[in-house]
Amino acid sequence: MSTLPKVAWIGLGIMGSPMSENLVKAGYDVTGHTLERDKLDRLAAAGGTAASSVAEAVRDADVIVTMVPASPQVEAVAYGPDGILENARRGALLIDMSSITPQTSVDLAAAAKDKGIRVLDAPVSGGEAGAIEAVLSIMVGGDQADFDEAKPLFEALGKTIVRCGPHGSGQTVKAANQLIVAVNIQACAEAVVFLEKSGVDLAAALDVLGGGLAGSTVLARKKDNFLNRDFQPGFRIDLHHKDMGIVTDAARTVGAVLPVGAVVAQLVAGLRAQGDGGLDHSALLRAVERLSGAQV
Hints:
Blueprint: E1 7-10, H1 16-25, E2 30-33, H2 37-46, E3 49-50, H3 54-58, E4 63-66, H4 71-78, H5 84-87, E5 93-96, H6 102-113, E6 118-121, E7 124-125, H7 127-133, E8 136-141, H8 144-155, E9 158-165, H9 169-197, H10 202-210, H11 217-228, H12 237-254, H13 259-276, H14 284-291
Parallel strand pairs: 1-2, 1-4, 2-3, 4-5, 5-6, 8-9
Antiparallel strand pairs: 7-8
């Protein structure tokens, strides 16, 4: 019998499926629930167990992980008679790895405390590739003792794992992460259009830029997307639009002024309005091309 905690995993999307499978590979007993039957079948094929409801998934779990798109979905699976808080056992540890508003995380932790359930907010960065390779960056908010307890599980999912402060801190750092990523992708996209219109060998240019001060994880991860115009979603524009709303709102609350972030947030919103919300966020290149006169 494994001495590892039993895990319930709620949300088996682009990120959740490979992450839950990495826990199975690490020896965890994982029971998952999601709305898509094929994703449940995928987890079962990987060695996990499919559950027909949130309540069924969490009932016997020591640790419950949620990985869903946004605050409304977190609230939908957490609250109500069929939700996590009403069906998880007292003493369970709820780890929300979704990217949501900091206030939603704070409120969830307070509500869970009344039920005897501990909470960590632990959003991630690294995209689909990072999830598959188990090299995610995990930024955590919550109590130190709960973080220490969860650390072995996090180590099966990522490489950079840092407690950033009390409840909501992980989400605040994730919002900053998404700000940096969006601005970086926009800068890369503008550089790509500039280089191509100048007649430069784009592949060679991106190679040399990647080796200098302009190099970044974003450029390294998204270079092939730019070169091949491959915008299959690793992280969808729709989700980055949601995240830019989070950082804009949070910045307003604390009195931080984000002028460049505000412009990029509008560019993301514009791309989404043009029907590209389902594409990878590297598709910001398409917005720059349209502004530069290309028909895309």
